[in-house]
Amino acid sequence: xIRLRQxxxxxxxxxxxxxxxxxxxxSATEKGLFARGAPETSAQGLGPDARQMISRDxxxxxxxxxxxLFVDSRHDFxxxxxxxxxxxxxxxxxxELAKSPLKxxxxxxxxxxxxxxxxxNSSIELAVRLMKDGFKNVRISFGxxxxxxxANHPTEKTP
Amino acid sequence: MKSLLSHPxxxxxxxxxxxxxxxxxxxxxxxxxxxxxxxxxxxxxLPSWLPLTIATIxxxxxxxxxxxxxxxxxxxxxxxxxxxxLIVFTFAVISGILRGLDIACGCFTQDPAAGKIGxxxxxxxxxxxxxxxxxxxxxxxRFTLLSYxxxxxLVGDPDR
Lengths: 159, 160
What we know:
The structure holds 2 protein chains of 2 kinds. By secondary structure, chain A is an alpha/beta fold. Chain A has 5 helices and 7 strands, in the order H-E-H-E-H-E-E-E-H-E-H-E.
């Protein structure tokens, strides 16, 4: 009991000092909570515009026009096991524009990025990276691979 | 077990290991709180305003606790905090795995390529929880700053 009381007292002290240091540091360096302006530094704002998120049907109608390039942000083994027909693979974990199949793609080409489905983040993160690398027309297929398969839209495997 | 809890070298090695681990893993988060907040947000367990607040405080708490274990000052308090943090992290990882989240851990580094959450992570964290609870219950005060302070104050006090 004495041990716990002592521990709690020390823990409180550490917590208060830690919080103080955190607030002082982030406010002095204008990071995190105190970041100015740039919306991408806030946790939820880190990401694309809501208008860039497209539904399965929108993705399908874009697909049918043939104007867009579909980009798969999943691991290469997932990609090889099955992907949207004609899609390129740019796994987020190893993404670098110079080494990715997107390096020769025109920056104003319409890209539709997808990953597994609504529960994955890599499509959103890849879309942010692509926009930073200068791509101007990036969309994210929110339902991703799972909805595409459920709807029986064209897929292919890489042997 | 009792002798292990008071074994000065075992306790010292555990302190150095956990302390260094927490100091090192806090640095990446301190430098880029926004990236850490993003990792926390990915778990989708918290209301949207909370990850950034956590990213402001938690890395510094990790750093303080790490140093405190290394130097041997407030070991009880810091091992209590470290245990509590690790338990919360582990539950977050488990819930992420069970919900099928495909996210980076955000544990030791903010590099998304460093690894996804998985059962291996849970195992690792459980081992770390065991170590920090061990420190909480340990009672060796050798090689701690506290013992040096106490010793030098004893020497300096002629009445004792």
